[in-house]
Amino acid sequence: MDLITERWLPVTLTSGEQIKISLSELLADNIVDAAYPRADFQGAAWQMLIGIMQCTVAPEDRGEWKSVWKKGIDESQWKKALGVISSALQFGEQKPSFLQSFDALDCEAGPVSGLLIDAPGGNALKLNKDHFVKRGNTDRICPHCAVMALFTVQTNSPAGGAGFRVGMRGGGPLTTLVVPQDEASVPLWKKLWLNVLVQETALTTAQLPLIFPWLAATRTSEKPGNSVTPDNAHPLQAYWGMPRRIELDFSSTEPGRCSLCGETHDNLLIQMRGKNYGVQYDSWRHPFSPYRAALKDPSAPWLALKGQPGGLSYKDWMGLLWDSEDNYNKTQPAKVVRAASRVSDTHLWCFAYDMDNAKARCWYQHRIPMINTSVPELFNGVMTSVISTASDALFVLKKALKSAMFDAPSEAKVDFSMREIAFWQETEPAFRRLVAALTADPHCAEQKTRKALRLWDSELHHYVITAFDRQILTNADCPDKILMRQLDARRVLESDYSKLKARKELLMSAEEDKETRHD
C-alpha cells in the first residue's frame, strides 16, 4: 500500500460527508478535518500529517510561510515533494514498511489489539483484570486503520516492561497544536500549516534513513549507550520516533469487518509481533510538546509534560503559552506554539493520555485560548498573582474541609483529588472572563480592568464559601457539637481567605496603578 496514492485517510468534507483520500489529495480546500473514530487516532493523524508537510514543503523563512498561508501550496510541487519521501510511505509485508521493524522479528505473534494503547495487557489478561476494557473487542484491524494505530502507539509509547522503550517524549506526552478559532471554515491543510516550522535547508534522499528509522536496520538498545540523539540522527526524526519494534503479520489475514472503523475488508490483520529493546531516545525536544526542568538544578534535563489525572486546568496555561517558572520548575512552550504566538484568532488544542506506567487511565483534550498581549512581562506578572491566589484559595478550602470533618484534622488523611479537579474546572469561566479583560488592557490602565480584578476576587471568594457549604452544611439534624465545629471551620475559612498574600498583592497592585496614574 502506497500511502501517497492509496485512499486510506478518512476525512470530513465541508458538506459533512466522510470519505477516504490519499496523501496526494490532502490540499483540497473542501477537506476540513481528519475523521477517525478514536480521539487518540485523531490527534495522531494531525501529528503525522504535520510531520509529512514538515519533511516535504517546509518554508525557508517566515515570509514564505505567510505566502503559503495566503496563496496555498502548488499541487504539482506537493506531489513532487511527496515523491522524495515515497520510500518511507510504503506499508505492507515487503520491507521497509511504515513504522515497522526493518529486520524480521523472531518472536511469537500476539493479537493485533496490542497496537492499541488502551487494550488490556498480557498481565491483565492472565489475571483476568480486564474489567473496564474487555479483551476481544479489537481482534481484526483493516490496513488503513493499522497505519494510524502504528503511528499512535509509536508517538505515545508508554512503559511496557523490561526493554520496551517509551516514546521520544516519554509515555503519554502532552501535545499542544495551534488551531484556528473558526475551525469549521478553514481547510485541513491550512490548519496543519499553522504548526509547520521554518526550515532553512530541504532534506535529501541520502538523509531519509536518519529521519525515518524503519528505512534501515533498527538501532537496538540492549547495550547501554546506544541511544539515538539529535547528534547521531536527523532533527526531523523528532516527528517519526519508533521506540517499539513491531512487525504486523500480513500472511495471516481474514475477511470481515474492521473492529475500529467498521468497514469490510478482504485482508484484516489479526496478528502482530513485538520485541523489546527498540530505539532508545535521548536529549530530544519534540516540537509539539511543552517542556519542564527543575529550577534549582542547572544540569536537570528538560522533560516533556505528560497527561495528568483530571487533565489540564487554567493553572497550567502559562507554561503552555510562554516561558514561565514557579518555585520549583521552569517551563517552556512547544516550538510550534512559540512560532505561532503572533498569529491572531487561534487557540491551542491540547491532548494526552493519562498513563500509569502501561495503563491508560483516561484520554484528555482541551481547547485553550492563544493569548496575545503587547506586554507579556506585565501580563505574566498579573497572571502569576491571579493563579497563586486561586491555588492558595484551594489550599485554605481543603484545610477548612478537614477541620469541619474531623476532631483531629492534622491526623486525618483525606483524598481531595476530585475536589481539586472540580475547583479548577468550576472557577475556569470566571478566569476566562478575567483573561479577556486583561488581554484588552494589559497595563491595567482602565477602570473596567480593575473592576474585573475585583470581580475575579469576589467570584473566587463566593466559590470557596459555597463549595464549603455544599459539602459540609448539608445535615439539618447535625448534632450541636459537630455543627459548632463546622461553623468554626467556616469562620476560619473566611478569615484565611481575606489574609491570602497573593490576593492582597493583586488587589493592592491594581489600586497602586490607579493612584500613580491619578498623581
Describe it.
Helices cover 37% and strands 14% of the residues. With 519 residues, the protein is α+β, with helices and mostly antiparallel strands. Helix 1 crosses helix 5, helix 10 packs antiparallel against helix 15 (501-518) and helix 13 (447-472) packs antiparallel against helix 15.
- List SSEs in N-to-C order: EEEHHHEHHEHHEEEEEEHEEHEEHHHHHH
- Rounded mean pLDDT is 90
**Tally of separate helices:** 15
The count of DSSP E runs of length 2 or more, i.e. the number of strands, is: 15
- The residue fraction in helices comes out at 25-40%
Structure characteristics:
single chain; 519 residues; alpha+beta; 4-stranded antiparallel sheet; 3-stranded antiparallel sheet; 37% helix; globular
How are the secondary structure elements laid out?
Blueprint: E1 9-13, E2 18-21, E3 31-34, H1 39-56, H2 62-71, H3 75-84, E4 110-111, H4 122-126, H5 143-156, E5 175-180, H6 188-193, H7 208-211, E6 245-248, E7 253-257, E8 264-269, E9 271-275, E10 291-294, E11 303-304, H8 317-321, E12 324-325, E13 329-332, H9 335-339, E14 346-356, E15 359-369, H10 376-405, H11 417-426, H12 428-440, H13 447-472, H14 480-498, H15 501-518
Antiparallel strand pairs: 1-2, 1-3, 4-9, 5-14, 6-9, 7-8, 10-11, 10-13, 12-13, 14-15
Helix pairs in contact: 1-5, 10-13, 10-14, 10-15, 12-13, 13-14, 13-15
